[in-house]
Amino acid sequence: MEQGVAMAVLCIVAGGVAAQVLAARLRIPAIVLLLGLGFLVGPVLGLLHPSQSFGSNLRPLIGLAVAIVVFEGGLALDVRELRAAGEGVLRLTAIVLPINFVLGTLAAHLIGGMLWGPSAVFGAILVVTGPTVILPLLRHARLERRSAAFLKWEATVNDPVGAILTAIVIEILVGLPHRSGEEALTDLALHLAEGATAAAILGSGSAFLVAWAFRRDLVPETLKTPLLLALALVAYAVPNLLMHEAGLIGATVFGVALANLHVPGIGELRRFKEALVVLIVSCLFVVLTADLDPAVLGKLSLPVLALTAATLFVVRPAVIWLATWRSDLTWRERLFVGWIGPRGIVAAAVAGLAGPRLSEAGYAGGDLIQPTVFAVIVATVLAHGFSLGPLARRFGLSVAADAERLAIVGASPWSSALALALHRAGVPVLLVDTYPGALRAARAGGVPTLQAELLSREAEEGLADQPPDRLLAATRDELYNALVCTRLAPELGRERVY
C-alpha cells in the first residue's frame, strides 16, 4: 500500500512538472498537456488510480491543495486595479453570478435534458471560472492590465462563492425534503452566516496578524513562508467545520487582505508561493483527470455535448453581455471577456462530490453532472487556452510584442542612443530614468519611456503596461545596477538581466 502511494505521488509530480516544462518550450498552455497526461495515465492506460491509491484521504488532500491555490490567487488581487476596472469588476462579480446561475440551470434543463434539481446544481457549478486556469493563462498571454483585472477578479471572487452556492443548492435538494421547510431554511441560513462570518474574520484577522508580526520582525525569514501556508490552511479548514466550502472564502480573503496591506518582503514570498502553486496545480489536474471513471466518460452523449457547446457559445457570452450592458467596458472587452471563461479545479472537485450525492439521494440524472462538468472543463480549457492570446492581440488587449522587449535603466547619452537605434530597428525597447531631462532626447525620437525609480511601486504599475522580457541596467552607479538585476532576476530570469 505504502509503495503504491509513493509511486502514485512520484508519477503525479514528475509527470506534472514534465508537462509544465514541455508546455513552456512549445509555448502552449500547460493545462492542455496536464489534462492530456491525466487522461492518458488514468482512463486510457489505467496506470494511475488516485482514489485507490489514496483512499478516503484523496478529497481532503485536494481541498487543502485548492486552499493554497485560491490563497495565492488572492495575493494577485490589488485594489489599485479597481481604479481603472472598478465598475467592470463589480459587474463581473456581483451581477454575473446570479445571471450565470439562472441561464446555466435553464440550459442544463432545456438542452441537457436534466431534471430541475441536477440542473440547478450544474448551474451553480457553472458560475465558477477558477483562478487555477485563468492565472496561468494570463501569465502566458500577457494581457493589458484592465482586461487582466476583469478576469482575475471574476475568477478569484466567484470561485468560493460558486462552491458555496453549489453546497447550498445540494443542501436544499437533499436536506429540506426530510425536515420542515421553515426549520430547514433557518438552519441553512444560520450555517451560511456562521461559515461566511468565520471565514471573513479568520482570513482578514490572519492577514493583520501577519502584517503586525512581520513589521516588528517577530518571525524569522525561514519561517515566514511556512507561517503563511499554515494560516492559509487554518483559514480554510476552520470555516469548513461550520459550512461546507466556506473555507475557500477564508483562504481567498486572507490572500486579498495580505496583498493590499503591503507587508514588507511579501513580494519575495509571493514568488516562492507562485512556484509552489505551479506544482500543486500540475498535480491537481493530473489527479482529477486520472481519477475519472471510464464509466463516467461513457455517459457523454449528444445532449451533454450540446450543453457543453451551449455553455461556450450561448450562456457565457449572453451572461457577460447582460451583466455589462451600459457599463464602461468597450465592445472589444465585452466580446473578449464573454468568450474567455475556462473552468478549473474547483468545478471538477465540486462536481465529483455533487453528482454522487444527488444520485444517492435518488435524483435521476445526478450521474450526468460529473461527465457534463468535465466536458465543459476540457472544452473551455482547450478553446480558451489556445484562443486567449491570439484574440487579445486581435482586439488590441495584449501588451505582448512580437519580439522581446528590452528595458534599459539609466538614460545616459550612450544608453539613449542605444534605445533610439533599437527603436528605429523595430526592436521593442523601454528607457527608464528618474529625471525627465535625461529622457527628453529619447522621447523626441519616439522611444517609449518611463519616468520612475525602477524599484518603486510607481514603476511597478508602469511596467505592468509595458512588461520587459530582458533588462539592461546601465546607470552610472554600479551598486544600483547590481541591486536592480538582483531584484528582477527571479521574475525575468537570471540569464535575461545584464
From TrEMBL:
Residues covered by the Cation/H+ exchanger transmembrane domain: 19-393
Keywords: Antiport, Cell membrane, Ion transport, Membrane, Transmembrane, Transmembrane helix, Transport
Keyword Cell membrane recorded: yes
Gene Ontology cellular component terms for the protein in this record: plasma membrane
InterPro entries: Cation/H_exchanger_TM, FAD/NAD-bd_sf, Na+/solute_symporter_sf, NAD(P)-bd_dom_sf
UniProt keyword Glycoprotein present: no
Primary location class: membrane
GO molecular function annotations of the record: antiporter activity
Coiled-coil parts of chain: none
Membrane topology recorded in Swiss-Prot or TrEMBL: Multi-pass membrane protein
Record PANTHER family: NA(+)/H(+) ANTIPORTER 1 (PTHR32507), NA(+)_H(+) ANTIPORTER 2-RELATED (PTHR32507:SF0)
Segments traversing the membrane: 6-23, 30-48, 60-77, 89-111, 117-138, 159-176, 196-214, 226-242, 248-263, 275-292, 304-323, 335-356, 368-388
Identification of the protein by name: Sodium/hydrogen exchanger
GO biological process terms held by the UniProt record: proton transmembrane transport
Localization terms from the record: Cell membrane
